[in-house]
Design goal:
Layout (H helix, E strand, L loop, with lengths): L4 H17 L11 E3 L6 H8 L5 E5 L16 H6 L4 E4 L2 H7 L3 H13 L3 E6 L3 H5 L3 H13 L4 H4 L3 E4 L13 H19 L1 H5 L3 E3 L8 H5 L16 H8 L3
Parallel strand pairs: 1-2, 2-3, 3-4, 4-5, 5-6
Amino acid sequence: MNLNNEGSQNLAKEIARLLTTNPLPKLNGMPSVVLFPPFVYIHNVYSIIREVEGIAVGSQNINQNEKGAYTGEVSAEMVQSCGASYTLIGHSERRLYFGEDDKLLAGKISLALKNNLVPMYCCGEVLSERQDNKHFDVVKNQVETALFWMDKSQFEKVVIAYEPVWAIGTGMTATPRQAQEMHSWIRQLIGSKYGMDVANNTSILYGGSCNGQNAAEIFKQPDVDGGLIGGASLKADEFYTIISSF
């Protein structure tokens, strides 16, 4: 919940300028960069970046209902009609502040797919779970409950973002070894359900205090396929440094 309308457009324009001047390659035919502005800015941001190669727009959330009398909520169909082609599902702040659980998130994922949105599913443990050595169990439950109801063709449309909650906005960052360990473990978990061909083609991103100084080292890890960037994305130059580090 950052920036006003003018500020969001200025940021999008600067990112678009950087990507036009110094373009990044598409990854497996997918955009290299996805911007997730607040709902009210989606169409404006889409209008700014729509002609720029390798960049797309997503929503920060969608409601779990298809339509109806849910005053103040926003549906998958609405954001898709405004230019979004991705949506975040299950960000840790949605879980913490709005009580979203994995069964509810599974419903959001279903609606995202129905409306041709790529779900970017967020999972990760809090500090106490990491300290109690429960982080693998926590992430396993999150992934299995929210995602493993899908058939293979549906699952292939999903992006996963591992975000250790203890590292989000705290300045603490999972070490490259910790990030690789969890990403590799998630990939093996996917492989046990859908096969390693699907697992190896699933994009698994890292989120959690990733910035221009640590991104390159994190992105060097073999199972880290990119980043879900928070506060550092509000500065166009630093954001470009991060995305060009991959």
